[in-house]
Amino acid sequence: MLKILIPTLMLFPTTWITTPKWLWTTMTAQALAIATASLTLLNWDSETGWTSTNPYLGTDPLSTPLLVLTCWLLPLMILASQNHISPEPINRQRTYITLLVSLQLFLIMAFGATEIILFYIMFETTLIPTLIIITRWGNQTERLNAGTYFLFYTLAGSLPLLVALLILQKEMGSLSMLIIQYMQPAPLCTWADKIWWAACLIAFLVKMPLYGVHLWLPKAHVEAPVAGSMVLAAVLLKLGGYGMMRMIIMLEPASKNLAYPFIILALWGIIMTGSICLRQTDLKSLIAYSSVSHMGLVVAGILIQTPWSFTGAIILMIAHGLASSALFCLANTNYERLHSRTLLLARGMQAILPLMAAWWFIANLANLALPPLPNLMGELIIITSMFNWSSWTIILTGTGTLITASYSLYMYLMTQRGPVTTLITAIEPSHTREHLLMALHLIPIIMLTLKPELMWGWCF
Amino acid sequence: MTSWLVRILPAWSRVRLGSVPGARFVSQTPSPGATGSPAVSGLSPAGHNDAHGHVEVSLYEKNRDFHGFHKDPQVDVWNMKVAFFFGISVAIVIGGTFVHYLPDHGASIGPFVLTCMKSSGMRQWARREAERLIKEREAKGIAILDGNYYDPSKIILPSAGEEK
Fold first, then answer.
1. Do B99 and A182 lie within an 8 Å CB cutoff?
2. Gap between the Cα atoms of A115 and A302, Å rounded
3. Alpha carbon A242 to chain centroid distance?
4. Rounded to two decimals, what is the model's pTM?
5. What is the pLDDT of residues A170-184, one digit of tens each?
6. Looking at CA atoms only, how far is residue B149 from chain A in angstroms?
7. Where does the NADH:quinone oxidoreductase/Mrp antiporter transmembrane domain start and stop, copy by copy (chain A) (predicted)?
8. Which of A81, A113, A356, A415 could cysteine-pair with A227, CB 3.0–4.6 Å?
């Protein structure tokens, strides 16, 4: 882990010492080097499941794909922000990069934590740079409202989590993930026990987000600058999923009835947010609601706690992270040219920017879960395991898949096909940087199709 | 021809067919006779002023080979080279090769140790070995798998009449 952490820490001096002319080049190079080094974490050579351990940090097949995704995303965020940040004074650019790097650092420590309290602290700490990125570098006045929703929704969910963790520490004597994975789940007799069960999960359900507590997500994703949207969609939502998967293994089947309302909410949320997508006028809002929809499927998969559903959840988290981030980058290419996110204002772009239309096409195909991409594999595995759990869920998940395909098609047709908007008179050509950014998003998805065992987790 | 120019080189021609051709936005004053003035505010076509009151100049004007990284052409090219080298050649190609040749560890025993007892590693080897054994046994004509895990003749059972 240190070979990842030390270079990430050294990104701070790099940011502040590099000459302004070469700042972005150096950051891109170092961030990509860290991303390459993170691939070595995929070498799981231990019988107990946990590798790369020291007393505080370790990796296992659940956290490693998410760690690699986090490390991969930093250079992509740097590439995506380079253009819109460049008019700003150099020290403000350095501050922006420092926030991105500190977010990266906290996320690495969160995914690598072996002690749940360290995970909790890092989970909360990631809120701070994200809040600053959204409220300082967002483009509309709504960013303040978005930051408030983002911060307080997550905090309201995580204070009960802290109490629950302290109770767990008192009962079990240890909060190390290596130990609690073997402990017998406590029977939930009293009302307080049931509230404890809910308190363990609510923070992560808000973060995922679950449908009823999802209101922060469209605001935060839309108002954030592109790097903020990317890291939110790709990694921060998966923090919630990861936390849930760690906690829920000790909240075992005795919680059957307690889980039902959340499973139903998650499944219903897939359909509701998918339908909302079909009515969106704001492009980024459409992509944000699509994230809620996909994460609803992940939440349902995690809550039923079968080996296959866990596997599907991890695969879908990784695949969705890359695809959703790609879509936000594409939306940003539109935004940088037109300074508007309205779907109607950027129609028929295929006639103007045909190469970018190719990327739009592939990204939307990934979003609607086209085989053989891992998006489909994750969704299919979750849908199958949910069908096994209860046959009625196929109605909801099947309709959800249909609606997902509809809004992905809608997004593609609205932005790329049809007549060019007459209002557009001068569109800057696509940059090499933007093409590279899209390639670096979509090539890993395609490569993961060929080696899915990297993402299967520990249950397959 | 002009419509092709309008589509392909928008930075050079901000107005459409029939209007003043070759109108550019290099000067600091907005172009006169702007027929393309936006009906919707918030759009920024040519002629839109940025925060300092200057007209937005496309970086393609000064540097035909702008890659999107930096306004200095030399830094722009170097940034592009560095990003492509580290991103594609190192991370994807070398990293991908590394990942491809990772040993056959597979997932290990996790939290379901008490319930599922999944095996650790060597999954790909196990499948190859199984296929090899099936092929070998079918060629020899013997049963692929015996119903008994242990050889029944080797199991010594106490006789029915014995008591402790």
1. no
2. 21
3. 10
4. 0.88
5. 988 888 888 887 877
6. 25
7. 113-404
8. A81
